[in-house]
Amino acid sequence: MKYEQLKLDNQLCFPVYAASRLITREYQPFLNELGITYPQYLVMMVLWENDGQTVNQVAGKLLLNTNTVTPLLKRMEAMGIISRERTGSDERKVHVRLTEKGKKMRDDAATIPERLAGKLKGGELDLEKLLQLRDTLNMIIKLLGEKC
User: Fold this and answer.
1) What sign does the CA torsion over 15, 122, 27, 103 have?
2) For residue 139, which phi and psi values (nearest 5 degrees)?
3) Core-most of 33, 70, 81, 120, by most CB within 10 Å?
4) In what side-by-side order are the strands of the sheet with 82-86?
5) How far apart are CA 131 and CA 85, in angstroms?
6) What average pLDDT does range 77-100 have in this prediction?
7) Residue 72, SS3?
8) Which residues contact 40 (CB under 8 A, 6 or more apart)?
């Protein structure tokens, strides 16, 4: 092939994209038990780690735009798992907090990473390789994120 650089098998982006989609698919049965979607799970993890963040902080942590996160948060508020509240000092800032229902979900969600890792382990993928892959992907995210 004249343009080897355009072959799908020679790309970094495709295996990352495909792996992301397949991993998200594997999460779905666990998330169905909680009644949330994968993007909602990501928001919940951000808040379980540090409750009471602004919409901008949540969006920044997830590398998303606020106009992507806001409709997601509205649906989560309707579900009763988070609350959104404007601050008195700056009406533009909206703080997001877990409700009691959202806090209680953490116990059920705590088993998800281990359950997913159990599906990925075996064969040539041991825990050490999974952790190395995570660290490498985090380095790529950091490098590309600095350019924004």
Assistant:
1) negative
2) -65, -40
3) 81
4) 53-54, 94-98, 82-86
5) 37
6) 91
7) helix
8) 31, 72, 75, 76, 81
Tell me the domain boundaries of the chain.
39-103
**Residue tagged 């169905």 (tokens):** 32
Token duo for residue 65? 């735009």
CA 129 to chain centroid, in Å, comes to 21
DSSP state of 147: T
pTM for this prediction: 0.89
Place of tokens 């990501």: 42
Counted residue by residue, the chain has a size of 148
Q: What is the pLDDT of residues 73-88, one digit of tens each?
A: 999 999 999 999 987 7
Q: Is the four-CA dihedral 73, 60, 43, 96 of positive or negative sign?
A: negative
* 39-103 is classed CATH 3.40.190.170: no
Q: Which amino acid is at 128?
A: E
Model confidence at 122: pLDDT above 70: no
Q: 104 is written with which tokens?
A: 């209680």
Task: Give the mean pLDDT of the chain.
Answer: 91
Residue indicated by tokens 């798992």: 81
Interstrand relation of 94-98 and 82-86 (parallel, antiparallel or unpaired) = antiparallel
Please compute the mean of the pLDDT values over residues 126-143 and round it to a whole number. Answer: 90
